[in-house]
Design a protein that fits this description.
The complex is a heterodimer.
Chain A lengths: L1 E6 L3 H13 L5 E6 L4 E3 L18 E3 L9 E3 L3 E5 L4 E4 L4 E3 L2 E4 L3 E3 L16 E2 L4 H13 L3 E7 L9 H16 L5 E6 L9 H13 L3 E3 L4 E5 L4 E4 L4 E3 L2 E5 L2 E3 L1 H5 L24 E3 L12 H19 L12 E8 L2 E7 L8 E5 L3 E5 L4 H18 L24
Parallel strand pairs in A: 1-2, 1-9, 2-5, 9-20, 11-18, 12-13, 12-18, 13-14
Antiparallel strand pairs in A: 3-4, 6-7, 7-8, 10-19, 15-16, 16-17, 21-22, 23-24
Helix pairs in contact in A: 1-6
Chain B lengths: L1 E4 L2 E4 L14 H10 L6 H15 L6 H7 L4 H7 L4 H9 L9
Antiparallel strand pairs in B: 1-2
Helix pairs in contact in B: 2-5
The chains are: A alpha/beta, B mainly alpha.
Chain lengths: 414, 102
């Protein structure tokens, strides 16, 4: 019997467990997945929770519901990977050996990286919405907040779901309008990038929306510290932005276990081949999703496209066939723009988000890079797709793992 | 597009970044720096050499990376290249503007 071991039962790990369950013969292979957390969170829902669009119950389910019966689900904390011995050490002192290891331990927010962030005002005037607890605490705050300076802030790149902070700003605009206090709220979006998004083409469309919604923008802001005593964030160039309520996306880093295992870069992300998903250091270790250092978005859709290609490559690796260099950085995401509308973008390593129709060329029904109510319905419907299709590895009709150029007004990244 | 720098015709992109790093040399560097209002000190050269080295090794540049480089701290980096230190230092060093990859 051989052992395939998956670390992390989040979006990517759970998808891999389901894909491999149907592909690896049970007579030859044991499949195990390790994760200390018993709850599977629908992370895109953390964006909606603060605005009471979703309830806390809608964004979490028991993780074991999504792991196939044949796969052993080990609910324990991981100490580290010992690649030289092909084994994973658990905090309990036990160990698990593997023939093939898939690392899907994701990314975590580390607010402690920024001086002053987790001081006395953390979860009082300073909040994050990238964690379940943070998002819920922010909801409680927004319910009673009477207005002032709201600053939506990104500490440093890369972050999970790079458009979420913008969506937060757009949704905040809607939320305060509906509450009738928009005139009492001053919204500023602060980013270390030179524009609203990482891709210039989408930045143009998004900058326009920021202006339309009267959201101020401060770019090229590299935060040095939070001066909580005076209610402001300060950057290395001495620029300052004052806040009454700071909603920040702290530094994102790979799991500390990656550092303990000596497998990560300076942010604990694992150097990984960008087209095959094999780690650069060890042939029998693969990485998927947010845990990798790939220059693609850290997002569920990316993990979904990667999972299909990684499944093929694991089978090829077992059969000693050359790995397919197929992952193209494909990413697809809805961007909530508030007032019941959303944009949709589809892009990869080399192709910028452009206008067009999706997923059927020329037909749609979804429009790329344009605001519409249907895109918003798509985003809300995605929660059902996530729980019922995506996690279980059921293919999503018409959406392929490699990006299609059909039906798009194509222009290449220079 | 073409731009005359140091009495030479140099191929640059719309933001003024060199398209071909092999066209870069110290004289050219001094001219680009001057256009940015920067007069090159020894420390400037040290930073330029460091980021060129990172570029040639295909290692991404970031503020965090500079912090850990041991070459310079972030305060000094801002003081040497006021405004946008990564944007300005890469422009002067003749390498592409960091994409601060997603």
């Amino acid at each position: 019997m051989k052992n395939l071991l998956i670390l992390g039962a989040g979006t990517a790990g759970t998808m891999m467990a389901n894909h491999l369950n149907s592909k690896l013969p049970a007579v030859d292979w044991n499949i195990s997945i390790i994760d200390e957390c018993k709850t599977h969170y629908y992370q895109p829902g953390f964006l909606f929770l603060p605005f009471d669009i979703y309830s806390s119950k809608q964004v979490k389910k028991k993780g074991s519901k999504f792991i196939p019966k044949r796969v052993s689900y080990i609910q324990q904390s991981i100490d580290k990977i010992i690649p030289e011995e092909n084994k994973v050490l658990l905090k309990s002192g036990e160990s698990c050996s593997y023939d093939i290891l898939i690392v899907a331990t994701g990314t975590k927010t580390v607010p402690e990286e920024i001086e002053g962030m987790t001081g006395p005002d953390w979860k009082n005037k300073i909040f994050d919405f990238y964690t379940y607890d943070g998002s819920k605490a922010l909801r409680d705050k927004l319910r009673v907040w009477e207005g002032g300076k709201l600053v939506v802030h990104i500490a440093e790149m890369p972050i999970k779901c790079p458009v979420a902070p913008l969506e937060f700003a757009f949704l905040a605009d809607s939320y305060f309008k509906n509450k009738g206090i928009r005139d009492k709220v001053d919204i500023t979006f602060v980013t270390p990038l030179s524009g609203a998004f990482t891709k210039p083409r989408a930045t143009q469309a998004l900058d326009y929306l920021l202006k339309e919604k009267n959201i101020k923008e401060v770019t090229d802001f590299n935060i040095e510290r939070v001066d909580y005593e005076n209610g402001k964030i300060v950057d290395y160039g001495e620029k300052e932005v004052a806040y009454d309520l700071l909603v920040t996306v702290p530094t994102n880093m790979g799991d500390p276990l990656i550092e303990r295992s000596g497998l990560g870069d300076e942010l604990n992300f694992i150097p990984t081949h960008k087209a095959t998903l094999q780690t650069l250091a060890h042939k029998n270790i693969f990485a998927i999703g947010d845990a990798t250092n790939l220059p693609a978005s850290k997002a569920g859709s990316v993990a979904h496209f990667e999972a299909e290609i990684l499944t093929d490559n694991v089978l090829r690796f077992i059969n000693d066939d050359p790995l397919k260099e197929e992952f193209d950085g494909h990413s697809n995401c809805f961007i909530e723009t508030g007032d019941g509308k959303a944009l949709l973008i589809d892009f990869n390593y080399t192709q910028e988000p452009v206008e067009g129709s999706f997923p059927l060329p020329g037909i749609g029904p979804l429009k790329l890079l344009k605001e519409s109510k249907l895109n918003h319905m798509g985003k809300l419907a995605f929660r059902w797709v996530y729980w019922n299709m995506l996690l279980k590895g059921v293919p999503i009709p018409f959406v392929s793992s490699q990006m299609s150029e059909k039906g798009k007004q194509i222009e290449k990244i220079k | 597009m073409k731009k005359i720098i140091d009495n030479r015709e140099i191929e640059v992109n719309e933001e003024g970044y060199l398209v071909d790093f092999t066209e870069w040399d110290r004289e050219l560097c001094l001219c680009i720096a001057e256009e940015q209002g920067i007069s090159m000190s020894e420390k400037h050269w040290e930073v330029v050499t460091y980021i060129q080295d990172k570029y040639q090794k295909e290692e991404p540049l970031s503020i965090r990376g500079i912090k850990k480089s041991g070459v310079i701290n972030i305060k000094e980096f801002y003081a040497l290249f006021p405004g946008g230190p990564l944007k300005k230092s890469t422009l002067i060093a003749g390498i592409p503007k960091p994409k601060s990859c997603i």
